[in-house]
Design brief:
The complex is a heterodimer.
Chain A (H helix, E strand, L loop, with lengths): L3 H21 L7 H24 E2 L2 E2 L3 H14 L4 H18 L1
Antiparallel strand pairs in A: 1-2
Chain B lengths: L13 H24 L4 H10 L4 H11 L4 H11 L1 H10 L7 H8 L4 H7 L5 H29 L14 H10 L6 H17 L7 H7 L11
Helix pairs in contact in B: 1-8, 1-9, 2-8, 3-4, 5-7, 7-8, 7-9, 10-11
């Protein structure tokens, strides 16, 4: 259960990290090599987030209908289908599997 | 609808805009329902939606405290899982406006998809336009979804039955997919995913993603 104190504490902590990231990176003194690291950073983080959001729940590994949905999403993305179709196909696959099992 | 919401001459498409909106609407809806059903007062939920502007830390807090952890442990866990937003803000920082005020505002909206989509642009000016547009397409639906979820409260029986929990990973996967055609990005993505899965059961929330972020360092080994 969230309370105002918790919300303020979390908001302060999250914003402090976001602001530090946006304000402390010294753009002009950043070398090309480190600039490239920053360029691929979102890819690394998103890949980890996708893996965790697909195959884990509450800190435990689990394979369920979501995994099938995300596999279908991967096939759609590979076939260069529009993103909206990809996402709907993932949700529909997951919902269908849950309905029939 | 062309203009600031769908900047011209960029790679940002109408389909992407709607998909992000839809994905974050469902995230806002389901998470607000979850927190309110868990006993969070409606106004506190509304405050959380706008002030924290992310569901990751509040979910982590709820998970830790629900499993018997102290409030302090919950807060620490909430801060730890949100380190990725600091990293996203740092990644987009070199592309943002020089103005500190604009950066300070932009930082509050640092999420996964808007940063990734903005960074596809080759010019900084376009990256800034896409960041603004994608942030609005993401935040406004997530706020509305969160507000509706707060109103519904425990009325929505099971968001899982609609497959909504697959929407978030599917949308993020679709965004990074085109990058995976090159070898280095593919290696980085696989390393990051494997590291996160190996660590998820043995480290506190947030740590798997932090370690996985180090996969970005692979790019240092190629020299030119």
């Amino acid at each position: 259960m969230l309370t105002w104190v918790v919300v303020f504490a979390l908001a302060a902590g999250v914003y402090a990290q976001r602001a530090a990231g946006a304000l402390l990176v010294d753009t002009e003194r950043l070398s090309l090599r480190w600039r490239r690291v920053l360029d691929v950073l979102p890819l690394a983080i998103i890949s980890a987030v996708v893996a965790l959001a697909t195959l884990s729940d509450d800190g435990e590994l689990i394979v369920d209908a979501r995994a099938a949905g995300v596999v279908v999403a991967a096939i759609c993305a590979w076939r260069k289908m529009p993103m909206f179709v990809t996402v709907l196909a993932a949700a529909a696959t997951t919902a269908l599997l849950r309905a029939i099992t | 609808m062309r203009g600031w919401a769908l900047p011209t001459n960029t790679q940002f498409t109408t389909g992407e805009a709607f998909t992000i909106g839809f994905a974050y609407f469902t995230v806002g809806l389901t998470v607000a329902v979850l927190h309110v059903s868990d006993g969070t007062a409606p106004w506190v939920m509304v405050g959380s939606i706008f002030l924290v502007n992310s569901v990751t830390p509040t979910l982590a807090y709820a998970a830790v405290t629900a499993s018997g952890g102290s409030s302090a442990a919950g807060l620490f866990s909430g801060w730890l899982v949100s380190t990725r937003f600091g990293l996203f803000a740092a990644a987009i920082a070199p592309r943002l406006w020089p103005s500190k005020t604009k950066r300070a505002v932009a930082a509050h909206a640092a999420f996964d998809p808007n940063v990734a989509l903005a960074m596809r642009e080759s010019s900084d000016a376009n990256a800034q336009r896409v960041y603004t547009a994608a942030s609005l397409w993401l935040c406004v639906p997530w706020w509305i979804g969160g507000l509706i979820g707060t109103l519904i409260g425990s009325g929505l029986s099971d968001p899982g039955a609609l497959g909504l929990d697959a929407v978030f990973p599917a949308a993020l996967l679709a965004i990074v997919w085109p990058q995976l055609r090159a070898r280095d990005p593919l290696v980085i993505a696989l390393l990051a995913a494997i590291a996160a899965l190996l660590l998820v059961e043995i480290t506190p929330g947030g740590v798997p993603v932090l370690v996985a972020a180090c996969a970005a360092l692979v790019t240092l080994r190629s020299r030119d």
